[in-house]
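User: Please go through the entry that follows and flag anything odd:
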Amino acid sequence: MTKPAEVNTAVSGRVSSEAHTMPELLDIQRAAFLRDGIPDAKTRIDRITRLSSLLLDNADEIAEALNEDFGTRPRELSLAADVAGCMVDLTHQRRGVEKWMQESNTAKVQGALGFKQRIRHDPLGVVGIMGPWNFPLQLTFVPAGAAFAAGNRVLMRPSSITARTTDVIAKHAPDYFSIEELAVITSKHGGGADFAKLKVDHMFFTGSPEVGASVAQEAAKNLVPVTLELGGKNPAVVDPDADIDKAATMLADARMVNGGQVCLCPDYVFVPEAKVGEFTDKVIARWTANFATVRNNPEYTATINQKNYDRILGLIADAQELGADVRQVVPAGEPLPDAEKRKIAPTLLTGVKAGMKIEEDEVFGPVLTVYPYRDLAEAIRYIAAHPHPLTMYWCGDDNENLARLADGTRSGSINANDFALHMFGAELPFGGVGRSGMGGYHGKTGFDTFSHARAIAVSSMPLKVAEMMSPPFTARDAKMTNGQMKLWRRLNKRAIKKLKKR
């Protein structure tokens, strides 16, 4: 691993971001951006490399901090998700940036006639990134990498809920970056609401729809564009011809990633009515095999805090009181749920109906709801009638039924037969739609999000648009206008004829 001192040629002195207020940090970065101008490819690649080094060099300390923040979080998950999980996209950004930042010539034929058109891909300036607590580093470092690729400076605010993890990053960041490039914002600077009020050039937020709406409102007061990566109740649909054992196993595992605290976890599943019993039995069997113990299991991620622990138990209790059937995997001799350790047993619900809170609220915990369906149209109608989810799961072949599901619903993405597959394809965009978010990132999509596509048009033609469109209008102008109208009417009639023949 490259040592920080060898890659960080831009750092002059070790200055912590906590030595300045948030507005001061914004002013420092904006002044540096204006002073230094648009960075070249080497500088951008260097910043992305240092961002990777910050994670990789301090991985063990990060994993320990995450374990302390959650109460229980397996080291393997923390390293895989919040360290190694960042590297696919950071590496892709590093490899692609030199090509992406080049100007693109859009009109070669017109250029030969004296009308040149091209597009620059310019950085915006200073980007603000607000991260959530469930994957506090992956969901800040990956967008930060895209912002660096696009040539920006970054104000990064990891979640204050995972305060120990944020402190680790804030402590080590000055060894890799000057605050002119990357400044880590902590709770000592103020709350997330204060950060959302900053007049940055782009605000990127990952979190709940409720908080996302507040961030968007604050940003709108300053006309700051936003990218919102939000959550939602992600549905799964099991094809009538799917292998029930494989479907149940995958969805049981996917629900328990990070203790169910992932915006991409399946929230509820539609299963062919005749196979519901088999499906639920296999889910319970999978959980029973995986979790011989829960309360003292260091690999079973605890619920992040008391507030969320109480909220999840409230959703289960409400559903049970209103008639839902509840099945839980409680190892013998373990008093679950356990408030001290914030451990909730894997829970499966059936018989959930309208009026139950869990029908509308995202669970974000170790609870899976199962609905029966007789015809795929039932599942499609239900999903389409609810807010668009961040992702959707399909268990079955890449067939006509999958096409029906995709055509009849809206979601940020669709993953078939495995968990969060689109996260591992560097070329695929990541983002929600409707209530699950706006805008996207990952790969070139991330570069584009934090860039401005700036049009450049240059004319050396003798005929000037300015002269044609300003008084006095001559007979020549009228002739040219009439000629244009005839041309466009003729082309439109031709399009109508072609449409009728289709």
